Amino acid sequence: MKKSLILFGILISSIFAINAQNGTMKATDGDGPELTFDSEVIDYGTIERYANGEREFTFTNTGDQPLIISNSRGSCGCTVPSWPKEPIKPGEKGSIKVKYATDRVGPINKSVTVTSNSKNPTTVLRIKGTVKDVQTTPEKAAPAGPVEN
Fold first, then answer.
1. Per CATH, the architecture of 35-132 is what?
2. Model pLDDT for residues 11-30, shown as the tens digit of each residue
3. Domain residue spans in the chain?
4. Residue among 37, 21, 24 at smallest CA distance from 116
């Protein structure tokens, strides 16, 4: 008899626990901040070495609660993002600034991972393009003429 009462108590407790979890999930559906970027890719095109590598990703909080960006990380040390630390109110715009080190010649294909309290908590932004070497003028060649021995 004691075993039956203990088993019944465990069964009832499990049912209450499952229903409590389901109720919590339904209460948050449709509510909350939403991070919407104007564009998730910035194309630098072809730029010269040592050119200005600063660009901006603009976004809007299209949700109904304040948006908080907790982190923004570049895929390597050559891509450094900065983001607003204060909450972004519903309907407000903001931007994530990215500085790429243009001292490296070659293709650009980097990512910036943004973490927030948005419905979609992780967003990956991309930068692409090509850095070409700065064109220098060659020195004047010696005049052509007879070579003396």
1. Sandwich (2.60)
2. 565 565 555 554 434 334 55
3. 35-132
4. 37
